[in-house]
Amino acid sequence: MKKLFTTLIALSSLSVFVSGINAQESKPSMQTVSFITGCWEMSRPERQSVTTEQWMSPDGGGMIGMARSVRNGKMGSYEYLRIVHDETGIHYIAKPSDSKTETSFRLVKWAENNVVFENPAHDFPQRIIYRMAKPDKLTARIEGEMNGKVTGMDFAFVRSRCG
Q1: Does the reported pTM lie above 0.70?
Q2: Would you say the C-alpha torsion 47, 105, 136, 59 has a positive or negative sign?
């Protein structure tokens, strides 16, 4: 009987420990978004355009990124990007070249190599999604409602050399 009681106590302790690990894993960390680290490029020769996105690895509770679109040899737009982890969660913060203010999107869904950031109050986009199916391919998607219609745009990036 004493042996059975000891075994039950051990199993109970193990159960609490394992559920604690699962609870910790269910909360996102900067590691959750680290799969986007590196340099990415989407080339569209038929439009004479190249879009690039670069992300520094997580450090100090954040990641720094930037994006640039070049068409016909001229930079059309650029964007300063940050992903930060604070007491309220993980936020994707964008400041496009045509805006004087930053816009924050909160991480709302995540899985391995897949994150969704949302800001329902923003005009467009309301969602920013990153997915990596292969180590050298990253899809960034923006979506939301525009002019009363749900729409989205995909950016199919391939890993590129930084520089």
Answers
A1: yes
A2: positive
